[in-house]
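Why do we bother with a discrete structure alphabet at all? Because it lets us treat a fold like text: something you can write down, compare, and reason about line by line. To make this less abstract, here is a complete entry for Nucleotidyltransferase family protein. Read it the way you would read a sentence in a foreign language you are learning: slowly, and without expecting to understand everything at once.
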Amino acid sequence: MTDDENRVAGLLLAAGGGRRLGGRPKALLPHRGRLLVEHAAEVLRAGGCASVHVVLGARAEEVRARAELPDCALVDNPDWEHGMGTSLRAGLDALAGAGARAALVLLVDQPGIGPEAVARVRRAYRSPRSLASAAYDGVRGHPVLFGAGHWAGIAATATGDRGARAYLGEHADAVELVECGDVAEAYDIDTEADLAHLE
């Protein structure tokens, strides 16, 4: 792994309050004998991210108390109720001060995405101008990789629950799609019915 590749930081967005799950924060849902936030952080680490930043919001103090997140930098997003865009901005702000060259962004509520998909997208890093995204049958999904040269533009357009969608749409020609449909499933844990995906 080159020095630059070592500077691809994992950024886990785990601040949501689980409104459609009766107000249960997704970070605290159980999966495979541990909390979903612990599982997702380990996926980023196992996928080759040298450092992992975790953005917390809903019941952040409880997540800090219950979750075992060794060697992770925990970032509080007091504005989490205003959508995922606020968490993305908080995370990128934290990474800007940590010397990272790129952020590899994973959502806490997608446990069907494992280390293989993370590693594939991470390997798409070339420079701070890199933009890459996992694809599922050619359709853009998560995880996504943002070189540091794009962070200011992403932060300026990340509003509500759209995250970086608008920015990626405007720069679609620059986004390297990395097919991951053979190693991952990109479902979300959004509703009570989705809880069946958890183990």
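What the structure line is telling us, in plain words: Residues 169 and 175 are 9 Å apart (CA to CA). DSSP finds six helices and nine strands in the chain.
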